[in-house]
């Protein structure tokens, strides 16, 4: 299984172009994008947030590839599910940050 996509979703254009390029390879099973970026130092970029979820939904509609995002809170899980994200995960940064 290959999960691929931008570490940080910064613009709709970036997410859609990346999704289309990954889909063209025929090798990616799940599209991921860093929507929420946990940081240990307050004030640093923490991701585009919920604003990026429609971008992932559009990418899925264009490519047919299921999507995933990393989450840190129950609210983030709810938001992701409201935009048909198939799976969510909590990574190392969330566990230790």
Structure description:
By secondary structure, this protein is an alpha/beta fold. The chain is 40% helix and 12% strand. It has one domain (3-96): Rossmann fold. A four-stranded parallel β-sheet has the order 1-2-3-4, covered by helices on one side. Strand 1, helix 1 (12-25) and strand 2 form a beta-alpha-beta unit. The longest helix is centred in the first third of the chain and has 14 residues, at 12-25. The N and C termini lie far apart (27 Å). Mean pLDDT is 88; it is low at 93-97.
Topology:
Layout: E1 3-4, H1 12-25, E2 30-32, H2 53-63, E3 67-70, H3 74-82, E4 87-89, H4 92-96
Parallel strand pairs: 1-2, 2-3, 3-4
Kindly state the number of beta strands. 4
Number of helices: 4
Strand content: 5-15%
Radius of gyration: 13 Å
CATH domain fold name: Rossmann fold
Strand order of the largest sheet: 1-2-3-4
Q: Give the helix proportion (percent range).
A: 40-55%
- Structural class of the helices, strands and pairings? alpha/beta
In the CATH scheme, the class would be Alpha Beta
Count of spatially separate domains: 1
Q: If you average the pLDDT, what whole number results? A: 88
> pLDDT below 50 for ≥5 consecutive residues: which ranges?
93-97
What is the makeup of the main sheet?
A: 4 strands, parallel
């Amino acid at each position: 299984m290959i999960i691929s996509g931008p570490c940080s979703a910064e613009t709709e254009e970036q997410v859609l172009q990346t999704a289309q390029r990954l889909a063209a390879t025929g090798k990616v099973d799940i599209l991921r994008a860093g929507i929420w970026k946990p940081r240990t130092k307050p004030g640093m970029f923490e991701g585009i947030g919920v604003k990026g979820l429609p971008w992932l939904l559009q990418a899925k509609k264009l490519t047919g590839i299921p999507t995933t995002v990393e989450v840190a809170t129950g609210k983030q899980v709810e938001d992701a599910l409201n935009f048909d994200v198939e799976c969510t995960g909590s990574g190392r940064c969330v566990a230790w940050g």
